[in-house]
Write a structure and sequence with these properties.
It catalyses: holo-[cytochrome c] = apo-[cytochrome c] + heme b. It comes from Parascedosporium putredinis. Keywords: Heme, Iron, Lyase, Membrane, Metal-binding, Mitochondrion, Mitochondrion inner membrane. This protein is an alpha+beta fold. It has one domain. It is built from 4 helices and 4 strands. Strands 1-2-3-4 form a 4-stranded antiparallel sheet.
């Protein structure tokens, strides 16, 4: 599936590269999920369900988020990818935007290899997203 997606995007995918690329892709998505869980933790603690579940996602590599667009205008590096994920929190759907940036390995990096920075946050397209971002921004959660 990943190979086919890369081919559709014209990224010159080679079958031999998939053994290297797919584990990196999966690790980055796992990191994104961990960050979503941190956003969700205050809202599902004490609820009868087992926590949030991924409902759906869309890769939108050619469409910049508003924050990424503003940062790019201000001179920052543009993200190399974007995903929009919808999470089901016990019946409440929360939309997230994830901007993927190439990072730099620091001098204390444990292992050589790719470095990524993820900007994971609830979208501001619903009252729930606005509330979550506000509460976190002022330290209420």
């Amino acid at each position: 599936m990943f190979f086919d997606a890369m081919r559709r995007k014209g990224l010159g995918a080679e079958v031999e590269d998939m053994k290297t690329v797919v584990p990196i892709h999966n690790a980055v998505n796992e990191r994104a999920w961990k960050e979503i869980i941190e956003w969700e933790r205050p809202y599902f603690a004490g609820t009868p369900c087992d926590g949030p579940k991924l409902h759906s996602f869309a890769g939108l590599s050619t469409k910049m988020s508003p924050k990424a667009r503003i940062n790019t205008i201000l001179g920052y590096t543009a993200p190399f990818d974007r995903h929009d994920w919808i999470v089901d929190r016990c019946g409440t759907r929360v939309e997230y935007v994830i901007d993927f940036y190439a990072g730099r390995a620091g001098p204390n990096a444990a292992a050589p290899g790719p470095s990524f920075y993820l900007d994971v946050r609830p979208k501001l397209n619903t009252w729930e997203g606005v509330k979550m971002r506000f509460c976190k921004g002022v330290g209420l959660v």
